[in-house]
Amino acid sequence: MARRLKPKNLLFTERGEEWLKQFSPADQDAAALLVSNLTLISHSVFERGLQEKLEEQTSIGTTPFALFAVREVAVQESYFTQSTNSTSGQLNALSQGVDQGSEARIVTMIRNFCKSDPNNLLNHPDIEMMRSSKCRTVMLVDDFIGSGNRVLEFIKAFLQDPSYASWHSTKYVNIVVVAYAGTDRGIRAVKRHKTQPDVSFVRRSPSFFDAIWSKKKRDSIIHVCEHYGVKTSKKHMSLGYSRTMGAMVFEHGCPNNAPAILWAPKTKQKTWTSLFPNRSILSNEKSIFPAEVFGRGLQGSLFDVGQRTLATLILSPVTGNINENTLLVLAFIAKGQRKLSTLSFATGLDEQRCEKIVDRCIQLGLITKTKRLSSKGKAELDALRRKTRSNLGIPEIGEEYYHPSQLRRAARG
After folding, report:
1. Which pLDDT belongs to residue 180?
2. CATH 3.40.50, the chain: domain bounds
3. Which of 50, 90, 91, 104 could covalently link to 100 via disulfide, CB atoms 3.0 to 4.6 Å apart?
């Protein structure tokens, strides 16, 4: 199996080295820590996750489905009017004359997905096609829900069409928004819209605020983002859009909720060299994006959460006899860290898979239903602490979960 590349390898590229040199020697460690904790989403990870989510939603919704790629639109005019080609009379799925990075990728995904069941999956249909096919569900597909404004404006443009507005008012059609990732704020904003759309996403957008760092380490990261952020052309976004400190970067582009020192474009007045200039990913950096989402690393995450004994014993990645993601979940819960977003940040898994691990641990009696470590779970961690690196004799597990064949007896007293 090919070795997965870590986010910190971005710093070993020519642009990464140039970016790091802009920081004082005292701040370079914090800048490197920021990059090392990015969640990198490759094209393959993005498309696979979004494809699975589309399959899931179309298996439970009301057919037929009309699928549309979310893009920038004018809210004063019907989406169908402004998207219709005046020459061919067909609907244009893509915007004209603008960057079409993620948009074009999603349009291609929708086209290929709809080929699997053309009677029930409609690829960017016009109003007449929706009417004749008796379409019942409109599915809006996006890569990332940041503030939620782009999705909300897209819905508003749909409502400018009298036929669609009538279908909505009679509850003949419903809206499902499917995205790869989204912020809490953006997801809430979309859900609150008067059309009451369902929102489904692969993973919640990770934030550096989800990292379990000491106050000193967290303060150093924020200092670096704010102190050097004023040197960029986007100083008002030093901590990212709405100060959310986004930690996710797609291979097709960097969201603007990430700290500005990572992506702010150069201007005549501001010559800061960004790692992802103007939110784009250059060819050298593309090679760093892994085939799977990379977690924080077992030992580092254990140190961060305060499990120093476990981290010291496990000097190298655990293989064969233990599932490190389950160990991380137990270790984090033992320290009172129960949020799925935090577990997702540490493991690199999406929240749905983290939830499955938590559920399995509950079934095995390792944690309680309120996500607190049980006496059996404590006994398991205590046993691990007593083991040496060469003798981690944990029962064999499957690919996804750690299944102890026999739970240890809880220590008395």
Report:
1. 96
2. 43-204
3. 104
What crossing angle do the helices spanning 43-60 and 101-114 adopt, rounded to 10°?
A: 50
Q: What is the DSSP string of 195-258?
A: T--EEEEEEEPPBGGGS---HHHHHHHHHHHHHHHTTSTTGGGTT-GGG--B-EEETTB--TTS
Rg over alpha carbons for the chain, rounded to the nearest Å, is 24
Phi (first) and psi of residue 201, to 5 degrees: -145, 155
DSSP per residue, 154-173:
HHHHHHTSHHHHHHHHTT--
Angle among Cα 24, 251, 16 to the nearest 5 degrees reads 20
Question: Tokens 């244009």 map to which residue?
Answer: 92
Q: What does the block give as tokens for 352?
A: 């749905």
Q: What are phi and psi of 79, to 5 degrees?
A: -55, -40
In contact, 13 and 277? CB cutoff 8 Å: no
Beta strands in 55-162 (DSSP E): 65-69, 121-123, 137-145
Helix (H, G, I), strand (E, B) or coil at 319: coil
Could you give phi then psi for residue 373, rounded to 5 degrees?
-65, 130
Helix, strand, coil percentages for the chain (3-state, nearest 5)? 45, 10, 45
Q: What are the φ and ψ backbone dihedral angles of 34, each rounded to 5 degrees?
A: -60, -50
User: Which parts of the chain have pLDDT scores under 50?
Assistant: 1-5, 315-321, 388-413
* Residues 53 and 178 sit within 8 Å (Cβ to Cβ): yes
Give me the pLDDT at residue 408, please: 46
Helices marked H in 289-388: 298-304, 308-313, 324-334, 340-347, 351-363, 375-386
Q: Residue 135: which of 154, 151, 153, 158 has the closest Cα?
A: 158
Q: Are 177 and 138 in contact (CB under 8 A)?
A: no
| Pick from 321, 328, 314: nearest CA to 357 | 328
Contact status, residue 82 vs residue 74, Cβ threshold 8 Å = yes
Element (H, E) at 40: strand 39-41
The 3-state DSSP class for residue 138 equals: strand
User: What CATH architecture does domain 43-204 belong to?
Assistant: 3-Layer(aba) Sandwich (3.40)
Q: How many CA within 13 A on the CB side of residue 126?
A: 12
